[in-house]
Amino acid sequence: DSAEASRSVVFENTQRCNPKCLRILLENITGLNIDVDFTVELIPEINVAVVTFIKNIDTKEFVEKCSQNKRVREFNMTARLLESTQSIKAENLPESISSDYLTVYFESARNGGGPVADVQLFPEENSAIITFCDHKGNS
Asked: Which fold would CATH assign to domain 87-132?
């Protein structure tokens, strides 16, 4: 158990629950308001949604509530804490982007960054993998 639980929860198998229904379901389970207390990022290509809590809640308890929720089970969805990572993928980058620019950008505290260990550019995909020195610099 990490001392600091993730503020984000991953919902898998979301294909049977449309986005609006998922948002309402999450409001019902949490008693919180979307966009004020939490956000939902849909990743339809892999039938996943990531819920990130703005309001401080016990996310482990929330995951437990979801596993017991009748509607979540009816949709065959599962919920788990989003694990920490030290790398992120940046996509849709301008062709002229440099690894130096990305390093400075992602090290900026204003952008929620932290010390960057490495930047790998993939110009053919207009993307890059940014690896931080620790997992706290990738929010």
From this structure: Alpha-Beta Plaits (3.30.70)
